[in-house]
Write a structure and sequence with these properties.
The protein is mainly α. 70% of the residues lie in helices and 0% in strands.
Length: 307
């Protein structure tokens, strides 16, 4: 507790000094936690103008004292090319230094590099190894990643029981992607008995965190009468929320509702608007339906002029 209070006080002193333009901070040079906090201020632009060069300077000072979060942050800067030229080799070097100190962020980042083949040969088994190390420290993103690997059978044999186990651990930590994925498992009956009530429960939890896919799927459930009474108004509400986040499936669904007149007056113009938005994101169903609407409108136009 004393160390926490000390770091808070030092960070406050640093913040005041930086805002005041006093860069003579030799009195904190020996405190790596404060150096990381100062690096974070420059990295995020909190209280100061964002400056990746200054962030890197402070992270390096802390990293030289073997501060694992600083090492991980330097790895992130090289991975993303923030303030430095993107260099996956340097990123891996710094991630490994942090991971060797059991830094779960770094372990997860190494897993991602092997999963994607970024600067290393793509290797799902190696990715699984690093994800597991981070997941065992209760790192929710790694737990979700493990669940997804078991779901797809990447680097391991497909195993829905393991999928549920890891998704649930992440979802219980409020990981919205895991909550959404768990909802999908219950909706489809993968690894568990199909349960629409459980599906909508997890979708709602993810939607409360603004997960557009969860919002869209709630709309689908209301539209299809899946575990809830069919309610086109509720479906429209959830589709709109997802569509406003540029979710192409929700935009496509709105197009269908306007095209059919489900809960709204049939309006081919509105249908076309939503289909076009989805089509811009390469939604094949929307692209097909645009052609269908053009043909419908052409027939209507021909009938009008014939009469």
């Amino acid at each position: 507790m004393k160390n926490i209070i000390k770091h808070i006080l030092l960070t406050c002193l640093v913040t005041i000094s930086v805002i005041a333009g006093d860069h003579n901070l030799s009195h904190v040079m020996d405190d790596p936690e404060t150096q990381v906090n100062l690096g974070n201020m420059y990295y995020n632009g909190h209280g100061v103008k964002r400056d990746y060069g200054e962030a890197m300077k402070w992270y390096l000072l802390a990293a030289e004292q073997n501060h694992s979060s600083a090492q991980d942050n330097i790895g992130n800067m090289y991975y993303n090319g923030y303030g430095v030229e993107r260099d996956y080799g340097e990123a891996m070097k710094w991630y490994l230094l942090a991971a060797q100190q059991n830094n779960s962020n770094a372990q997860f980042n190494i897993g991602n590099m092997y999963c994607r083949g970024d600067g290393v040969e793509q290797d799902d088994e190696e990715a699984m190894k690093w994800y597991l190390l981070a997941a065992q420290q209760n790192y929710s993103q790694a737990q979700f990643a493990l669940g997804y690997m078991y779901y797809k059978g990447y680097g391991v044999e497909q195993n829905y029981e393991e999928v549920i186990k890891w998704y649930l651990l992440a979802a219980q930590q409020n990981n919205s992607n895991a909550q959404f994925a768990l909802g999908n498992m219950y909706y489809n009956g993968y690894g568990v008995e199909r349960d629409y009530g459980a599906a909508i429960k997890w979708y709602l939890l993810a939607a409360q965190q603004n997960h557009s896919g969860a919002k869209c799927n709630i709309g689908i459930m209301y539209c299809r009468d899946d575990g809830v009474e069919r309610d086109y108004g509720a479906a429209m509400k959830w589709y709109l929320l997802a569509a406003e986040q540029n979710n192409s499936q929700a935009q496509f669904a709105l197009g269908i509702m306007y095209c059919r007149g489900d809960g709204v007056e049939r309006d081919y113009g509105e249908a076309m608007k939503w289909y076009l938005l989805a089509a811009e994101q390469n939604h094949s169903g929307a692209q097909d339906n645009i052609d269908k609407i053009y043909r419908i409108l052409k027939r209507i136009n021909n009938l009008y002029f014939e009469n």
